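ok new one. same drill as before - structure tokens go in, u give me an amino acid for every spot. 724 of them this time. try not to just spam alanines like last time pls lmao
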């Protein structure tokens, strides 16, 4: 019996030993496989994995440089860059929001960013995001199990959960932040706004103390740095602090704005970054490629987590090239003062008169020496009247110009054969069947007059009769029909007027130029063709008038006006201009198809307008400057900003002229719209003082030996350049 029991034990021990052997064998196989796998990893793929661990990326970042200066023709600084201390943050590629917040919290103990403007700029969505970041458990609790079950199969699960959380954050919760917490948020949102590895400005115009403290703590503020930023400033201001030529200079976007939304793709394709500052309008926009500096190119070496290991400058940056304008800033300031003073007086008893424009151009080169405009606007809140720069109105607004265009009418008459030089026509009131009487300002008429007398005295009837002949009707019959081919007549007029720049773009190097109204339209009745001949149908811009006057002054060449004169390299020496890169050359757009003797005859008529005692421009007093020109008065519908009864008719008064008449140096247009009377002479008063300002400056500079080839640079701040 005992042997049986012992045999059972032996058999049981043998079975256990067998199972242990199998187990050890399996373990052996598993360890063998593991060793084999480790061998493959280390021997075959070891280098690859090591490279992956040590992997670095080279990321090239372009850093913007200050824009080029804008100067006047004599090297006077108009627009420059004002440096300011700034704090920046360069965000690594894969940093977590919590890590950025920690840096923001520490930075908030060093700098102040808690002004009303700073805190007011924080949108509600950012406050909600900040609340989620500060209260993750409470934010998680706002999502129920039902919500999760309902959306668990939704492909936009995370996005919808996020928005659901946002919707359930209460006003009490987002308004629970202390002022210090809001300050941290103001810093934090600036830090996360920028693009990875691209410096983002956290605060500009920092105090010396803030700048120093941040500089001392850079080791504990990863990604934070101190730098010198810049702001664009206009060096010239008037007595009220308004910038000279502001509307024509244009604006530059801020670093926060970056590239304009409507042209992001355009700029990105040209190597810009999204937070680059660019010209938004007019000169700053038109000459963006000149003024934008060459970016500093920096190569950042990062690890696989996006942490910057080292930075290397591979191309030095360079400030933008300098743009030298054809504008004479001293003349510009004087012209703006003249407009302001004369318009202020003329506005007494004139409820609709709110603006005036002056363009001054070299008739041979097209250089714009001055482009000035002022607009009086009443502040609806304070009731105070502000005088704003409206120089841009010279090319963006248009008006019926009146008799100033009669030089083009006479020349069109010569060209078409409707009249001949010296031809006498009878100026008396004319009336056609079913129409009102049409007459000259001398209501009884001037009687038989020739073309020169018609220009000198600004005869309307002489121009009416010329238009009739041009339209095919050679004889005026009192109370008879006006039987002209209005289509052929208006098209002939417009074709010839366009040769002078009337009704077409002048080609100035600024965006947004308008051509006026009426071009291409056929008048509803033939009588409008007669109105066209005296400048009371189509509308023109003040800039078109100065181009038209220049074309007559220079002997028939329509010159393209331009506001840029030169492009120069930025100078390394203070108060010196750099070498010329490009010089803007005069461009002839067309030569008018008319005989030189015809032009000389109209020039003689313009001379008599100002210098003959019977001339309508005789009120211009400075005869010593040998001024020639043409006055204009037009009755037109008011379409200004002040509420008015429908069909309100007002008067536009204008002047276009040049001097000296024997060898013109400047051409001038003056446009003053929307008076209730045609008896004002503010157009002549402005013109008189503009010519005087130009020639007095010329004489003064001759005494000082200041020439365009020997410019002096003035970089003084605007406080020293306010108008006297």
């Amino acid at each position: 019996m005992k042997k049986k029991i012992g045999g059972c034990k032996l058999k049981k021990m043998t079975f256990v030993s067998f199972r242990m052997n199998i187990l050890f064998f399996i373990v052996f196989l598993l360890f063998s496989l593991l060793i084999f796998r480790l061998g493959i990893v280390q021997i075959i793929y070891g280098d690859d994995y090591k490279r992956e661990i040590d992997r670095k990326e080279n990321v090239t970042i372009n850093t913007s440089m200050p824009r080029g200066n804008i100067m006047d023709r004599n090297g006077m600084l108009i627009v420059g860059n004002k440096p300011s201390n700034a704090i920046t943050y360069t965000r690594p590629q894969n940093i977590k929001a919590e890590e950025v917040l920690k840096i923001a919290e520490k930075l908030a103990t060093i700098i102040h960013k808690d002004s009303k403007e700073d805190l007011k700029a924080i949108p509600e969505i950012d406050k909600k995001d900040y609340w989620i970041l500060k209260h993750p458990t409470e934010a998680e609790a706002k999502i129920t199990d039902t919500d999760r079950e309902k959306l668990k199969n939704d492909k936009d699960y995370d996005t919808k959960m996020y928005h659901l959380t946002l919707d359930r954050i209460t006003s009490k919760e987002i308004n629970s932040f202390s002022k210090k917490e809001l300050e941290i948020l103001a810093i934090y949102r600036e830090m996360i706004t920028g693009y990875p590895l691209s410096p983002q400005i956290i605060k500009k115009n920092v105090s010396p103390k803030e700048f120093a403290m941040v500089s001392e703590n850079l080791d504990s503020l990863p990604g934070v740095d101190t730098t010198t930023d810049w702001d664009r400033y206009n060096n010239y201001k008037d007595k009220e602090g308004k910038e000279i030529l502001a509307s024509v200079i244009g604006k530059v976007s801020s670093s926060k704005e970056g590239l304009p939304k409507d042209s992001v793709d355009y700029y990105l394709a040209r190597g810009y970054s999204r937070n680059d500052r660019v010209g938004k309008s007019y000169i700053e926009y038109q000459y963006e490629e000149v003024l934008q500096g060459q970016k500093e190119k920096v190569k950042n070496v990062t690890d696989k987590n996006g942490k910057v290991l080292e930075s290397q400058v591979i191309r030095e940056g360079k400030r933008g090239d300098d743009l030298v304008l054809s504008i004479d800033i001293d003349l510009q300031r004087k012209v703006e003062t003249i407009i302001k003073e004369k318009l202020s007086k003329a506005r007494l008893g004139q409820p609709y008169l709110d603006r005036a424009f002056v363009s001054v151009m070299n008739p041979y080169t097209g250089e714009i020496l001055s482009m000035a405009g002022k607009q009086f606007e009443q502040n609806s809140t304070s009731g105070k009247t502000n005088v704003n720069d409206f120089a841009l109105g010279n090319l963006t607004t248009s008006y019926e110009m009146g008799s100033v265009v009669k030089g083009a009418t006479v020349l069109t008459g010569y060209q078409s054969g409707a009249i001949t030089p010296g031809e006498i026509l009878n100026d008396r009131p004319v009336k056609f069947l079913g129409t009102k009487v049409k007459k000259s300002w001398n209501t009884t008429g001037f009687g038989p007059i020739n073309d020169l007398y018609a220009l000198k005295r600004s005869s309307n009837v002489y121009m009416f009769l010329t238009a009739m002949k041009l339209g095919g009707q050679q004889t005026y019959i009192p109370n008879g029909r006006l039987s002209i081919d209005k289509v052929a007549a208006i098209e002939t007029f417009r074709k010839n007027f366009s040769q002078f720049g009337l009704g077409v773009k002048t080609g100035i190097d600024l965006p947004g130029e308008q051509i006026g109204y009426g071009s291409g339209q056929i008048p509803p009745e033939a009588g409008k063709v007669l109105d066209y001949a005296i400048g009371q149908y189509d509308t023109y811009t003040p800039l078109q008038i100065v181009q038209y006057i220049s074309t007559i002054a220079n002997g028939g060449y329509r010159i393209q006006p331009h506001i840029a004169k030169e492009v120069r390299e930025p100078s390394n020496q203070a108060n010196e201009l750099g070498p010329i890169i490009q010089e803007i050359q005069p461009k002839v757009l067309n030569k008018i198809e008319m005989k030189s003797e015809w032009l000389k005859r109209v020039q003689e008529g313009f001379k008599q307008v100002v210098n003959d005692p019977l001339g309508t421009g005789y009120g211009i007093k400075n005869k010593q400057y040998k001024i020639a020109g043409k006055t204009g008065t037009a009755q037109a519908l008011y379409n200004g900003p002040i509420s008015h009864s429908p069909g309100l008719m007002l008067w536009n008064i204008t002047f276009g002229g040049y001097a000296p008449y024997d060898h013109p140096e400047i051409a001038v247009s003056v446009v003053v719209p929307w008076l209730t009377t045609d008896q004002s002479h503010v157009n002549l008063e402005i013109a008189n003082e503009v010519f005087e300002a130009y020639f007095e400056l010329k004489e003064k500079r001759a005494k000082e030996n200041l020439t365009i080839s020997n410019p002096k640079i003035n970089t003084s701040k605007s406080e020293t350049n306010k108008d006297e």
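The first strand starts at residue 56 and ends at 63. and btw Residues 2-44 form the longest helix (43 residues).
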